[in-house]
Design goal:
globular, Rossmann fold, alpha/beta, single chain, binds nicotinamide-adenine-dinucleotide, six-stranded parallel β-sheet, 2 domains
Amino acid sequence: MNLAVVGTGYVGLVSAACFAELGHTVIGVDIDEEKVKKLKNGECIIYELGLEELLKRNIDAGRLSFTTDLKEALPKSDVVFSAVATPPNEDFSADLKAVFIVAKTVAENADKNLVFVNKSTVPVGTGKKCEDQIAQVLKERGMDIQIPVISNPEFLREGSAVRDTLQPDRIVVGINNSTWAKEMIDELYQPLTRVGKPLLHMNRESAEIVKYASNAFLANKISFINMLSELCEKTGANVRSIATGMGLDERIGPRFLHAGVGYGGSCFPKDVKALIALSKEIGIPLPLVNATHEINNHQRTRFFKKILDSLPEKATVALWGLSFKPRTDDMRESPSSDAIELFEKNGHKVKAFDPVAAENAKKLHANVEYSDSALDAVNNADVVVLLTEWDVFRGIDFTEVKNAMKGNILFDGRNVYEPEEVKDAGLKYVGIGI
Ligand SMILES: NC(=O)c1ccc[n+]([C@@H]2O[C@H](COP(=O)([O-])OP(=O)(O)OC[C@H]3O[C@@H](n4cnc5c(N)ncnc54)[C@H](O)[C@@H]3O)[C@@H](O)[C@H]2O)c1
């Protein structure tokens, strides 16, 4: 099948490469000329396990190409995916400008039936708005063609995006009233359904909500354990024991019950905010979603305040980890960004090490001193703060850390270290909920 994937970011690029790997012919489209230039040369523009070889193999096989011009891709495409970003506006609502631009461009230039698939995370009702917009433009052009709009939300996780796309837990497809579009999508995903991956059909509104519901539920689980972490600190309990005690209950499960500095990234904060905005817009209360957001902010603020309170004047803070989670270079809504801004605003110096995300961090935080190793970052530091649990930070020799530092406190924002082990090296340990 011939596809266009518009937006070659974390979702679009992985989707394009994986669809090509599954045998489809794919054109990746992006307005960013620099990105497209690099992609045409087979250069991988994001850090994602296994993506580079997938790109190279499929470009070489002639199944994957890139362009900046959607108009050029349309005559060669049966299905157009929109995978553009939907970042939060100031009022928390999702910014849908890019989605509507793509829908309009398709409507203004298509001259045959095709299926428009929304892969971006969009609030319920957006598919209908796109379909209405497309119908209006086609009417104005006097074009008697059909462009049904389908919701096919993406569930991949950065860090394991290729595996998640090729081996998804489920594929959700929301279609209202188009049998031929349903047949096209079934055929498109046949390489995955053939090996038993579940494809769920539902109406478009349900598909749009499933994505937000999934992310808000996971974010809520994180906020729940983070809420308890403060109770543990006050009462002498240990949140790790609480999480283990809860997580062994099969009805609860251990995942997303790890207390820490709070969730970040381009999805959980944005999708929780968009649900809050939607709740206000349509007047349906979603109090758990509001609480999830508030707890996350509170958790970050109270952890950073502990660090700030421990610092002497003009201190040096060593940060371990910059990306919002391990195995990605994505800095969007990363706790490290908030930390850097706060420490610099208070007159402190930040030294940081991240195995992958430093290049992206440099574009945001020019005054940080970027180190080549975890040990280099702690040299002469007053405190060290673990913010991203990259594997490289797990095998740290705390005695070497203590000897290199000026101060003696390790703040463990991800609760990965054994307090005793850190203390044995002569460092003070501050975790979360411990
Ligand atoms: N990143 C994730 O882990 C993830 C997971 C699931 C769902 N999503 C959702 O997928 C969507 C995309 O997220 P992302 O992280 O890939 O975003 P991204 O910012 O990494 O990529 C978006 C890309 O779209 C391009 N673009 C913007 N406007 C365009 C236009 N008019 N025409 C062509 N290209 C255009 C940008 O240049 C950029 O390369 C969002 O709605 C997000 O919520 C993201």
